[in-house]
Amino acid sequence: MKFQVHSISNAPIESKPLLEAAQKKFGFVPNMLGVMAEAPALLKAYLTIADIFDSSTLSATEKQIVALTVSAVNGCEYCVSAHTGIAGMLQVPSDVVEAIREDKPIADKKLQSFRLLVAEIVGERGYPSETTLKNFLSHGYNEKNYLEILVGVGMKTLSNFTNHAALTPVDDAFKKVEWKKSL
After folding, report:
1. CATH topology of domain 16-172
2. Three-state SS for 147?
3. For 131-156, what is each residue's pLDDT tens digit?
């Protein structure tokens, strides 16, 4: 299959307003959204879930830990690169981002417990270990936080799998922080 990265001008009619809103929000149309535009239902689903995830009670750092961890576990080079750039814009501590990119522990034990849970949810297909769950809860997280993580996992799964199929090129805005999965 050969996926096209649509622009506003050549996107399916149902996707045009969504891409126009992305252009306004980000200052450009991310390549991933251009690919998703081929299927307006996917583009709308992704953007809707992203808005819902943004409204969760998780902090900006925790949201980016979800996005980066899911993407790293799934080996999505596009999303790890993009979320590295986004995390920098949101002032997520650089040591947190680098730990995820390099698959090393986060120094902050609370954030590491959060990250380990996210990684196990993805890696174990929704069945994290009892030890990981207890560690997560012992750091002050709760059931609501767990369920909000699932919103982010769903969102990033849509984007990761889209990018795997399309081999979406990293946007120029994120080239400086491009990530390559280790084999």
Report:
1. AhpD-like (1.20.1290)
2. helix
3. 999 999 999 999 999 999 999 999 99
The one-letter code for the residue type at 76 is: C
User: How buried is 53 (Cβ within 10 angstroms: 0-12 exposed, 13-18 middle, 19+ buried)?
Assistant: buried
Q: What is the DSSP string of 88-142?
A: HHTT--HHHHHHHHTT---SSHHHHHHHHHHHHHHHTTT---HHHHHHHHHTT--
Buried b (16+ CB within 10 A) or exposed e, 113-134: bbbbbbbbbbeeeeebeeebbe
Task: Give pLDDT tens digits for 153-170.
Answer: 999 999 999 999 999 999
Residues 6 or more apart in contact with residue 131 via CB below 8 angstroms: none
Alpha helices in 27-93 (DSSP H): 31-36, 40-54, 60-73, 77-89
Contact 162, 42 (CB under 8 A): yes
Length reported for the chain: 183
Q: Is this prediction's pTM over 0.85?
A: yes
24: burial class by Cβ within 10 Å (0-12, 13-18, 19+)?
A: exposed
